[in-house]
Structures are given as C-alpha cells and as structure tokens.
C-alpha cells in the first residue's frame, strides 16, 4: 500500500496538468501557477504547448514526452524528480493520459516514491456528457474504438448490454462509419454528438443514431459521442450477429442468398436490409 498526502509531503511532484480543448481562457489559475513554477514541462508536442505558454507569458523550459520517445524521456523525468525538481506533464488538449500516452510515466513515478498530482481542468468527455441530455448518474468512458469496422463491431458487441451512458471519442473522417456500426450493433438508441467543444463552431446534435447519421457527413472537428445505455425493454435487432450467422451458414455450404433469407426469417428482420448490410460491410 502506498499513501500519498499531496500537500503534506516534501518529495518531488509530477503534476498532470490539463490544457484547454479549444478555448484558451479555460486554463485555471492553479494550472497556470504550476506551469510557471515547475522546472520543466513534459509536452506531447512542444510546438503546440509553446503556443499556449506564449499566450500566458510563461517561459518554463519544455521537453518532449510522447508515446514514441518515452523510453528516453521517462528516465530523464525521473532523474529530475530525484534531483528535487517538480515536473508538469501536458498533452495537446484536455487531460494527460485520457486517450493519450502517459500511464507508464505515472507508474514509474509512483514506484520511485514521488508524488503524482492531478490538476482540475477542461475535459471533452465531461463537457459532452453533462450537456448531452442523457443520464449522468452512471456512465462509462470508452474513448476511441478501433479503426477497422470488424474490430469496432466486436468492441461494441462486448459493451452493448451495459446500462450506463457511454462516451466515445471519434475523428471526423470515421464518424459516419462508426455511427453505422453503432446502429447495427446497439440498435437505434438516443445519442448526442458533440463537436468542436468550447470553440466558435461548438455544436451539440441530439437525437437517435439514425437522425444524427443524416447530418454526420457534414460535421467536422474533434468529436465526442455520448450514447444512451442499454435498457432491458429495448428491442434491439443485432445486425452484427445476423451477418455472423449468414457467414456461418455459408461456411456450412449454403449459398449466400439462401443464407441471408434463412437468417432474416430466424431473426425477424427485413431480408433486403440484411442483404444490403451484408454486402456493404
């Protein structure tokens, strides 16, 4: 067991400092003070962080720390902590570690006996959740789904019966495909698509998955999907399972058209919709 009393310890500290997700004014006074006072700021992209520091007149030294150089950067950060220095970690936007690398650094810092302190600040998932109109009492943050549709559907299959509101991050060039996969696996649930949060083009699109799909192609910017949880009384047709069954029948020797007709009958779905989904995957 390790007990850390953050404000009663004189050991060096690694600060996890969130940065604005769009609006530069969303830096807290405490976060700014920490960025001014630490010996060095470990940044995911020093070019992006330099712009932020310049906006607030902060001249603290920067060092690069990201997924591809952490074998080199982590020992350097630990060495600074051992020398009695405090270090801040920032990502390009929002909280460090949330859908960003950094977990290994935190684990190494803890194992060496130093403090790890998180600072309050902007977070896209929370912004989207509380304004979504969906339940906030219980929720699951999932982050990014896989890039490939087949793997994405398997991931959705694993969580489709979770009764909690679920939050996903997604890139604009994948939003249509991801929502289509969600429609097939989860059914036509209520959702909210939040994009460009805190920026001038901020938008919340609330409705069913089918309704949001109608405008998804026109949406740009960083996106958060807030999806309603599973309800026991929902009647959800699972297109992913249907397609899997078609494949199984084909593998057993059945012709494609015949397999689609049989699965459509078994699962009480429209044959033409199953046919179209099967050949579009």
Automatic annotation (TrEMBL):
Keywords: Cytoplasm, Methyltransferase, rRNA processing, S-adenosyl-L-methionine, Transferase. The keyword Transferase applies. Its EC number is 2.1.1.198. Its main location: cytoplasm. Belongs to the methyltransferase superfamily. RsmI family. This is Ribosomal RNA small subunit methyltransferase I. Catalyzes the 2'-O-methylation of the ribose of cytidine 1402 (C1402) in 16S rRNA. InterPro entries: 4pyrrol_Mease, 4pyrrol_Methylase_sf, 4pyrrole_Mease_sub1, 4pyrrole_Mease_sub2, rRNA_ssu_MeTfrase_I, SAM_MeTrfase_RsmI_CS. It is found in: Cytoplasm. The gene is rsmI. It catalyses: cytidine(1402) in 16S rRNA + S-adenosyl-L-methionine = 2'-O-methylcytidine(1402) in 16S rRNA + S-adenosyl-L-homocysteine + H(+). Residues 13-212 form the Tetrapyrrole methylase domain. GO terms for molecular function: rRNA (cytosine-2'-O-)-methyltransferase activity. One of its GO terms (cellular component) is cytoplasm.
């Amino acid at each position: 067991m390790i007990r850390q009393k953050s404000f009663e310890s004189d050991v060096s500290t690694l600060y996890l400092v969130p940065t604005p997700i769009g609006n530069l004014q969303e830096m807290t006074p405490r976060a700014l003070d920490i960025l001014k006072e630490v010996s060095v700021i470990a940044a995911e992209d020093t070019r992006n962080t330099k712009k932020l520091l310049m906006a607030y007149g902060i001249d603290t030294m920067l060092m690069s720390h990201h997924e591809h150089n952490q074998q080199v950067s982590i020992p350097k950060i630990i060495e600074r902590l051992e020398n009695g220095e405090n270090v801040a970690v920032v990502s390009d936007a929002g909280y460090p570690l949330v859908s960003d690398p950094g977990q290994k650094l935190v684990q190494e810092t803890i194992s060496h006996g130093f403090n790890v302190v998180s600072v309050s600040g902007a977070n896209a998932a929370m912004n989207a959740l509380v304004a979504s109109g969906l339940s906030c009492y219980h929720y699951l943050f999932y982050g990014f789904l896989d890039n490939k549709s087949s793997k994405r559907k398997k991931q959705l299959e694993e969580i489709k019966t979770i009764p909690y509101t679920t939050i996903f991050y997604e890139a604009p060039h994948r939003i249509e495909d991801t929502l289509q996969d969600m429609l097939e696996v989860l059914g036509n649930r209520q959702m909210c698509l939040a994009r460009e949060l805190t920026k001038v083009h901020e938008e919340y699109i609330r409705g069913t998955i089918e309704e949001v799909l109608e405008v998804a192609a026109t949406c740009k910017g960083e996106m958060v999907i807030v999806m309603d949880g599973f309800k026991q009384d929902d009647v959800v047709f699972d297109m992913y399972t249907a397609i899997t069954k078609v494949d199984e029948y084909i593998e057993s020797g059945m012709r494609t058209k015949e397999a689609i007709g049989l699965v459509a009958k078994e699962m009480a779905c429209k044959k033409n919709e199953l046919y179209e989904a099967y050949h579009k995957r």
